[in-house]
Specification:
Elements lengths: L6 E6 L2 E8 L3 H9 L1 H7 L7 E7 L6 E7 L5 E12 L3 E8 L16 E10 L2 E9 L4 H22 L2
Antiparallel strand pairs: 1-2, 2-8, 3-4, 4-5, 5-6, 6-7, 7-8
Helix pairs in contact: 1-2
């Protein structure tokens, strides 16, 4: 099958939109995006990064914590809360970073909460993945997330192709 690269849009200073066609059904893509065991395999916003821990309480009001560690041993731990869960079409959740993500439990957050909406749109035997990440505090944060999400989405697409 043809591989489609990420399409990245920055409609304003606080918003990032990523699109990609995945060679998978919406059900498979949704499950891979929300399964802790799968997240550990594909979440690679930086080369060499690993995910020691991923926890998700996949329901409205449920929280998640994804602990990522780079080759130098520095932790980047994302946390948030699910606002909408409509399997397999749509997820809406907050996104923030822990100040010190090295621990095993939820820690103090930076307080720069952004919002992510992920849509899994059926396109025949494929899925159009659309992520809108909004409410960035700075252009630099938006652009840094564009790079990280771009690499993570590349890894996700490869994971989906098995």
């Amino acid at each position: 099958m043809m591989t489609i690269n990420n399409e990245v849009q920055k409609p304003d200073d606080a918003t990032l939109i990523l699109r990609r066609v995945l060679n998978a059904t919406p059900e498979l893509a949704f499950n891979a995006w929300t399964s802790p065991e799968h997240i550990k395999q594909w979440m690679r916003p930086e080369p060499g990064m690993v995910v020691p821990s991923a926890r998700l309480d996949l329901r409205v009001g449920g929280k998640f914590r994804i602990q990522m560690k780079n080759p130098e041993g520095e932790y980047f731990t994302a946390v948030g809360e699910f606002r909408e869960v409509k399997a397999p079409e749509r997820l809406v959740y907050t996104w923030d970073w822990e100040k010190d993500g090295a621990g095993e439990e939820f820690g103090e957050v930076e307080g720069k909460t952004s919002l992510i909406t992920v849509e899994f749109l059926k396109r025949g035997q494929q899925t159009e993945f659309v992520m809108t990440h909004s409410r960035f505090a700075t252009i630099a944060s938006r652009d840094g997330h564009a790079e990280g999400w771009g690499r993570a989405l590349d890894s996700f697409a490869k994971f989906m192709e098995g």
